[in-house]
Amino acid sequence: MLSDLDLPALWEYRSGHQDPPGFDAFWHGTLAGARAAGDGAVLTPVPTALRTVDVYDAEFPGFGGHPVRGWLRLPRDRGDAPLPAVVQYHGYGSGRGGPYDDLVWASAGYAHLIMDARGQGGAHAGGATGDPVGSAPAHPGFATRGIEDKETYYYRRVFTDAVRAVDAVRGLECVDARRVAVWGNSQGGGIALAVAGLVPGLAAGFFQAPLLTDVRRALRVTGTGPYREITGYLGARRSSADAVFETLAHFDGVGFARRALAPGRFSTGLADDVCPPSTVFGAYHAYAGPKTIRAWEFNGHEAGGHEDLADALSAFGAATARGDEER
């Protein structure tokens, strides 16, 4: 069943999100501070029984120079030419998983980094990155940590870590820095969309059911998933709404979409009651670069599932092949 608007209405829908004053200055200062705190990635080889993929435990400096972990996977038979790369961000409450997970991208010839979202990994695939920054009272989960101030909001740290993941991959000798794409689903899709708006020169981006997009609309039409944490917080702290929405305006995917120029692909399920399809279309319509979207009529939060992955492989292959020809 539909969780939101029908498809004709989604094509007509436009988000009412307004960028807050100082949006660009806030993010410029945040990223400049993070980059000043350190650079580069430390790669530790991980012994596995794999014959075609090499796995490394990667650590790089994120927000505040805090150590952020991920898995870097490389095709073993990669020759001397620099590789295209994909940086992946995982879903809410999950983590980078184990060394044998997510082998598709390296098997397809990419350098592949999957980044931990700091402090997560307890609910699903395990994570290995802590969050050394505390916050004021929060609803259970991550979506409200430090939410009454943009400087302390949890996703300031996560989005900064995600940008630094791209920086780290671009700094690897085995990677062609001009052929780096970003990809994620749910929370990961929202993170990838933020990175697309913050990092120039990406080859492509794929945003599957992105979270933290068209947030005011999401809070009106869904009461599930991470958005429920925000409404729960506001229900308990009735006088905090103005501060909360001022903060969230600096993290809304629609704002990042307006600044993203890399070719972008969106995906949404019309039965998705976690990240409602209108919020995805809100970001899609605002997206500044070349773009496509697929709406899966009978699917929920999984959107196109493995078919989205196949689309991403095709789209990223075309985008990175163009970069290869330019070389």
Overview of this structure, please?
Helix 2 crosses helix 4. The relative contact order is 0.15. This protein is α/β, with parallel strands linked by helices. It has helices at residues 7-12, 23-36, 104-107, 154-170, 187-198, 215-221, 225-236, 241-248, 253-257, 277-286, 306-326; strands spanning 42-46, 53-61, 67-75, 83-89, 111-115, 175-185, 204-208, 264-269, 291-296. The protein is built from eleven helices and nine strands. Strands 1-2-3-5-4-6-7-8-9 form a nine-stranded mixed beta sheet, sandwiched between helices. Helices cover 35% and strands 19% of the residues. A hairpin with a 5-residue loop joins strand 2 and strand 3 (67-75). It has one domain (7-321): 3-Layer(aba) Sandwich (Rossmann fold). Pfam families: AXE1. It comes from Streptomyces tremellae. Residues 2-305 form the Acetyl xylan esterase domain. This is Acetylxylan esterase.
Helix content: 25-40%
The main pleated sheet reads as:
9 strands, mixed
CATH superfamily: Alpha/Beta hydrolase fold, catalytic domain
Strand content: 15-25%
Point out poorly predicted stretches: none
Ends apart, CA distance between termini: 48 Å
Number of DSSP-assigned strands: 9
- Average pLDDT over all residues: 94
Shape: globular
Domain Acetyl xylan esterase: 2-305
Organism: Streptomyces tremellae
InterPro entries: AB_hydrolase_fold (IPR029058), AXE1_dom (IPR008391), CE7 (IPR039069)
Protein name: Acetylxylan esterase
In a nutshell, what does this entry contain?
This is Acetylxylan esterase. By secondary structure, the chain is of the alpha/beta class.
